[in-house]
Amino acid sequence: MKISLLVIGKTDAGYFSQGIQEYENRLKHYLPFEMQVIPDIKNVKNLSEEQQKEKEGEFILKNLLAGDYLVLLDERGKDFSSLQFASYIEKKTHTISKRLIFVIGGPYGFSKAVYDKAAEKISLSKMTFSHQMIRLVFVEQLYRAMTILNNEPYHHE
């Protein structure tokens, strides 16, 4: 199984990029992982929030392959502790044969078409984070999950 994080727009802040790269490199030790970047939508000032979500949704859906398992990172999703997330990832590695795709949407969330295609929604926090920051939070939590599953000392209770 391969895990992908699908995001809208590149990571502009160097300090986030460095952190993301650090955890991407660490994750390679455990499983195939990639972050796929969908280019920012052009002329967003001329689009309503709904139109922007629709355009982003089209690009998200175009990046999916048959057999992908789509999980949205969404504030209304299921909450996990780090240990519960590790257990979730372990279960998915045994039940998903192709790609496990996590998606961070644009600033207004997801289109109805993307919600309809998703198998699940997960919340990383009840707090709101920038779309740049949540990328780093996600890859760190995925790395943490892998160290938990491998009984390594990174995570402390």
TrEMBL record:
Catalytic activity field: pseudouridine(1915) in 23S rRNA + S-adenosyl-L-methionine = N(3)-methylpseudouridine(1915) in 23S rRNA + S-adenosyl-L-homocysteine + H(+)
Subcellular location(s) per record: Cytoplasm
Single GO cellular component term: cytoplasm
Entries under Gene3D superfamilies matching the protein: 3.40.1280.10
EC id: 2.1.1.177
Pfam families, per the entry: SPOUT_MTase (PF02590)
Keywords: Cytoplasm, Methyltransferase, rRNA processing, S-adenosyl-L-methionine, Transferase
Example of a GO MF term: rRNA (pseudouridine-N3-)-methyltransferase activity
UniProt cross-references to SUPFAM superfamilies, sorted A to Z: alpha/beta knot (SSF75217)
Keyword Cytoplasm in annotation: yes
Cited function: Specifically methylates the pseudouridine at position 1915 (m3Psi1915) in 23S rRNA.
UniProt record similarity statement: Belongs to the RNA methyltransferase RlmH family.
Subunit structure: Homodimer.
Protein name: Ribosomal RNA large subunit methyltransferase H
Species of origin: Dysgonomonas capnocytophagoides
